[in-house]
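Tokens in:
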């Protein structure tokens, strides 16, 4: 269970709100009250079209401008990358939730801006419940929504009184100080195994298309890569992995893209979770003939797909692999 403000959401200047306050010639507080007023007028479930309709009537702006205003209103709400990725990997093995002291209208942003419903099982907002942290009732409400006991919960908040409130009902809780400390604490609490290894892979580009691998059972799109075996150079590994995972056996290296360190967390259905630190060495590659053979045993889970560069940029699941693609395109 996570708090939002100061934990999942780093502090950022609300530049979008400032721009619209200036355009409408009102003070920043007046602009905020205008938009929150429209949100609260509509009420649950805060349908965006209904909020836009109220704002059009209140401001005289046309529909495209109101749509832009609503997009800008919460543009500073951006989830912290590493915590978002960690949180996204926890399900379905763990039940996850957001517990925040905030006005009821905040659900408009958590739904339409942050899409938190895709990340967690429950979002509990104090303004909707009439009780707030550190009152023990809101922690009990959260455990009821998740269907778990307090002793099964870990909780992160940036306020010590809220952390102590969670501990008082039996939760394991941490006061947020930094992302690194928080992730390290969570991995210890979840008894995750630490492992480190080296891997190599290839960004195969032909014309304006990129070779990617689709893995349907994990809903992933990724680049070919794998462990560097004993007595094998990183370049040899990259060529071998492209051949095994995609079936394209005549790939050749055209540029060395260097090394990046990748860290990720994995939560299988059974057994311990893992925290993996991986030294990745990537190469830009091309095909000599496009000849294919059957994929190696165990690699049939990957379906090779050629995507236009822009589609590949958007489709790759992991940020570090998007960075590898960008690097490959510059050489």
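Residues out:
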């Amino acid at each position: 269970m996570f708090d939002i403000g100061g934990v999942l959401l780093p502090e950022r200047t609300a530049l979008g709100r400032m721009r619209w306050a200036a355009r409408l010639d009102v003070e920043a507080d007046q602009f905020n009250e205008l938009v929150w007023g429209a949100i609260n007028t509509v009420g649950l479930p805060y349908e965006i079209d209904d909020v836009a309709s109220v704002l059009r009537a209140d401001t005289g702006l046309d529909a495209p401008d109101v749509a832009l205003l609503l997009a800008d209103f919460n543009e500073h709400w951006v989830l912290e990358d590493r915590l978002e990725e960690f949180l996204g990997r926890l399900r379905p093995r763990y039940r996850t939730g957001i517990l925040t002291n905030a006005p009821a209208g905040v659900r408009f942003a958590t739904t339409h801006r942050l899409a938190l419903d895709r990340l967690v099982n429950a979002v509990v907002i104090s303004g909707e419940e009439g009780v707030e942290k550190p009152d023990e009732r809101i922690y009990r409400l959260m455990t009821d929504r998740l269907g778990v006991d307090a002793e099964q919960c870990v909780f992160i908040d940036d306020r010590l009184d809220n952390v102590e409130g969670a501990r008082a009902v039996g939760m394991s809780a941490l006061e947020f100080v930094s992302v690194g400390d928080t992730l390290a604490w969570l991995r210890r609490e979840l008894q995750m195994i630490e492992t480190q290894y080296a891997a190599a892979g290839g960004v195969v580009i032909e014309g304006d298309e990129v070779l990617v691998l689709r893995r349907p059972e994990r809903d992933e799109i990724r680049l070919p890569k794998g462990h560097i075996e004993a007595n094998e150079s990183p370049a040899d590994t990259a060529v071998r992995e492209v051949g095994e995972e995609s079936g394209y056996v005549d790939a050749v290296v055209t540029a060395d893209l260097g090394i990046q360190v990748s860290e990720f967390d994995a939560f299988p259905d059974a057994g311990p979770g893992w925290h993996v630190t991986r030294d990745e060495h990537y190469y830009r590659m091309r095909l000599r003939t496009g000849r294919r053979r059957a994929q190696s045993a165990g690699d049939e889970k990957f379906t090779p797909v050629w995507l236009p560069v822009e589609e590949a940029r958007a489709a790759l699941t992991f940020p570090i692999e998007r960075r590898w693609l960008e690097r490959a395109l510059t050489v």
